[in-house]
Amino acid sequence: MPAADAETGIAPGTTPEHPLDLAGVGIGPANLSLAALAHPLTAGTGLTTAFYERRPAFHWHPGLLIEGTTLQVPFLADLVTLADPTSPYSFLNYLRHQQRLFPFYFAERIHSPRAEYDAYCRWVSQRLPGLHFRHQVDAVRWNPEHAVFDIDFTRLSHSGDGEGVGRAHARHLAIGIGTAPHIPEQLRPLAEAPTAPVLHSADYLQHRDRLLAAGHITIIGSGQSGAEIFLDLLRRRPPGKERLHWLTRTQAFAPMEYSKLGLEHFTPDYTRYFHALPEPIRDQLVERQWQLYKAIDHDTLAAVHDELYQRTLGGGWPDAVLTPGVTVRTAGRIGTTQLELHLDHAEQGERSRLTTDALILATGYRERPLDPLLASLDTVMRRDTAGRPQIDAHYRLELAPEVTGSVHVLNAERHTHGVGAPDLGLIAHRSATILNSLTGEERYPLPERAAFTTFGLRPARRPGAEPGARVPAQLKGAAFRSF
Q1: According to the model, what pLDDT value does residue 474 have?
Q2: For the residues 78-107, what does the mean pLDDT come to?
Q3: Where are the alpha helices (DSSP H) in 388-482?
Q4: Other beta carbons within 10 Å of 282
Q5: Would you give the end-to-end CA distance of the chain in angstroms?
Q6: Per-residue pLDDT tens for 396-430?
Q7: Which of 32, 40, 152, 165 is deepest in the core (most CB within 10 A)?
Q8: Alpha helix (H) ranges present in 243-402?
Q9: Are 289 and 265 in contact (CB under 8 A)?
Q10: What pLDDT does residue 138 have?
Q11: d(Cα 185, Cα 177) in Å, to the nearest integer?
Q12: 483 has a pLDDT exceeding 50
């Protein structure tokens, strides 16, 4: 897909009379996977796509690409392989182009370095047509006259300023705007002040040198990022002068559930089972299953313990405090250089205060709300009892019948599809499901079964296999038109 015209901001073929078949908002791993699997369909079906992203290039969690950290999923969980192992956009093909297949082979790795995954995705993004970086999508509206979505965007300069506006048109949308760092309400006043360092773990690497210069550092949060940051700081502080506190409200620095049968919660089988459950049961399950996706992998926990143990060999204990079961009740600043945290320990029923010079919030991420972008669809969007969008088995928002276009959401469906929604191992399957739904054909054959576990007494059917599965009206019995 050619870039947008410099004068009009309208990409060729995106007039209301000749719209794109699919427009994507956001270019993270989810939409990049969709773009990679959609590209081969251009020749066979005439499928036209474009994807828009406000950032200047693909970057995946740059603040957490700490040296030595790896993905928590095997390398097969790339953008395409679990849906199409023959794709030119696979991780193994990336290694071949980098002339690194043999080193990877002899390394006997199943989990690739996190920085390598970031580089791989950027490599794919640089080879796919139809990806428009520095394009900020401002609004999306349904155009009933032409039965298309109008997509208004702003083109951004290298400095991030707006330098022009444009409009694209598409029959269907894929919203992959991802997640945003979460800062608990009681800590937001600290994060917004400019003096002593208070930052989210997402920005860790950019500020590591400043943090290391601080006398005392506190990390809050017991997920994978909190553990990796604690370990990185521990390794970089002098023995006996670590001056680190690591606090979490969970009852333990708990290991990730990583047994082989436990991992089957990240299969399409479990996703189908979860989606068919009543809403109250789904909400209870997500809350209870935190150890499937919020805990720490075994190797990182072992590395933390090993590093602490090494620091006892000369006698004494490292100046590092690890305390679970702690809640930060309130927080404030002491002068211009220190912070004071007011702590509660529920099991002991005690309160305490902690003074620190720097604070890292490894407090996770939250799905970016769809409502600001899709405000014009509010009256036609079906919602659950908690006010969240209802999302069907094909990852489509459930909209009123008069909206004949589909809005697919990617990594905003944990409440309907379960803990696997943000997992890298399921993004290729989700992309294939979406493309099969859009084309009305099984362009990517998907497995009837992927787990040894049978979830439930009545297994849910694979999307597309159930009787009466919805196919967009304009696609029934026809391939995409070429423009």
Answers
A1: 40
A2: 97
A3: 414-417, 427-439
A4: 19
A5: 11
A6: 999 999 999 999 999 999 999 999 999 999 999 99
A7: 32
A8: 268-275, 279-288, 298-310
A9: yes
A10: 95
A11: 23
A12: no
Q: How many CB atoms lie within 10 A of CB 294?
A: 16
How many C-alpha atoms does 136 have within 13 Å on its Cβ side?
Answer: 14
Separation of alpha carbons 368 and 412, rounded Å: 8
Quote the CA–CA distance of 51 and 259 in Å, as a whole number: 37
Average pLDDT over residues 368-381: 95
Q: Which secondary structure element, helix H or strand E, spans residue 211, and what is its range?
A: helix 208-212
Task: List, in sequence order, the alpha helices (H) in 8-152.
Answer: 29-38, 41-45, 91-97, 101-107, 114-127
Mean pLDDT of 340-358: 95
Q: Which residues contact 238 (CB under 8 A, 6 or more apart)?
A: none
Q: Of all residues in the chain, what percent carry a pLDDT higher than 90? A: 85
pTM for the predicted model, two decimal places: 0.92
Token pair of 55 as six digits: 């950032």
What mean pLDDT do residues 384-389 have? Answer: 96
Contact 28, 52 (CB under 8 A): no
The tokens describing 47, both together, are 């499928």
The answer to whether residues 363 and 174 touch, using CB atoms and an 8 Å cutoff, is no
Contact 147, 155 (CB under 8 A): no
Helix axes 29-38, 427-439, angle to 10 degrees: 50
β-strands 148-156, 365-367: how paired?
unpaired
CB burial class (10 A; 0-12, 13-18, 19+) of residue 142? buried
pLDDT tens, residue by residue, 206-235: 999 999 999 999 999 989 999 999 999 999
Q: Looking at residue 447, what DSSP letter applies?
A: -
Distance CA 136, CA 54 (A): 4
Q: Alpha-carbon distance 386 to 369, whole Å?
A: 14
